[in-house]
Write a structure and sequence with these properties.
The chain is α/β, with parallel strands linked by helices. It has 2 domains: about 160 residues, HAD superfamily/HAD-like (Rossmann fold, 3-Layer(aba) Sandwich); about 80 residues, Orthogonal Bundle (DNA polymerase, domain 1), CATH 1.10.150.240. Bound molecules: magnesium ion. Magnesium ion (MG) binds next to loops.
């Protein structure tokens, strides 16, 4: 069962009353994403298995990704460059020549993965569209996210799509301004407490956490917030009980 946090003073009805715009995170909220990164990472660790154990390769790759985030932003292309940099770092440049083309091939393969829609998503969008303004608010590579949205068959439900370079309170603030939407009329749904929930609550918007089984280390936030505008859901379908 979904529930509002313990000190919540908003009834379901007031929320249903207030929300006008609903923004959906895309990766691991609308469709599968993180497991594909982990699959590529496992293959990358196998490529480097004669140099270092997998856990150490993973650690160095993660540190490289975080160091590069401010330069590359989020998404697969930055991940590919970080894998190449990690390869160079671990082998000190002394590696078989075909490893770099192999890493590029793995990244390109990931960029062409089929879009796997998560359970309940089409029904939720179908039910809410027409009653609320629906928006996509996601990080990631622009071209890749556009491709996924197009192939997903979900594009028709959204009145606005925002591919964001980051999801801090300031980024949401800009989005709300663009949408001409007050924070109190805005609900964000997503799988990351850190990126989809906390910054929206900071602006006094409404936010809902829908957990996904795999979360990138960088997005992990151990505790869930205590805030009257926070709504915890177990599945995306549960939002219909609060809004439909
Ligand atoms: Mg996500």
């Amino acid at each position: 069962m979904s529930e509002f946090c313990s000190n919540c003073y908003n009834s379901k009805d007031t929320m249903r009353d207030k929300i006008k715009t609903i923004a959906f995170d895309a990766d691991d909220t609308l469709w599968v994403n993180e497991p594909y990164f982990r699959e590529t990472e496992v293959k990358f660790c196998e490529l480097l298995s004669s140099y270092l154990p997998a856990d150490q390769v993973t650690k160095i790759l993660f540190e490289t990704e975080i160091k590069n985030l401010k330069l590359y932003g989020y998404g697969i292309k930055g991940f590919m460059l970080s894998m190449i940099e990690t390869l160079h770092h671990i082998t000190k440049g002394n590696h078989p020549a075909d490893l770099i083309p192999e890493i590029i091939r793995m990244g390109q393969e990931q960029l062409q993965k089929p879009v796997e829609i998560l359970d309940g998503v089409p029904t939720v969008l179908e039910q809410l569209s027409g009653k609320y303004r629906l928006v996509v608010a996601t990080k990631g590579d622009l071209l890749d996210q556009q491709r996924k949205l197009k192939t997903s068959g979900l594009e028709q439900y959204f009145q606005h799509v925002e591919i964001m370079s980051d999801k801090k309170a300031n980024d949401y603030s800009k989005l709300l301004k663009q949408l001409n939407c007050a924070p109190g009329n805005f609900l964000m749904l997503g799988n990351s407490v850190k990126s989809d929930v906390l910054p929206v609550l900071e602006l006094e918007g409404y936010a809902s956490h829908i957990p996904f089984h795999t979360t990138w280390m960088h997005e992990v936030h151990e505790t869930e917030p205590v805030h009257p505008h926070f709504l915890k859901l177990n599945t995306i379908s549960e939002i219909l009980g609060h809004l439909d």
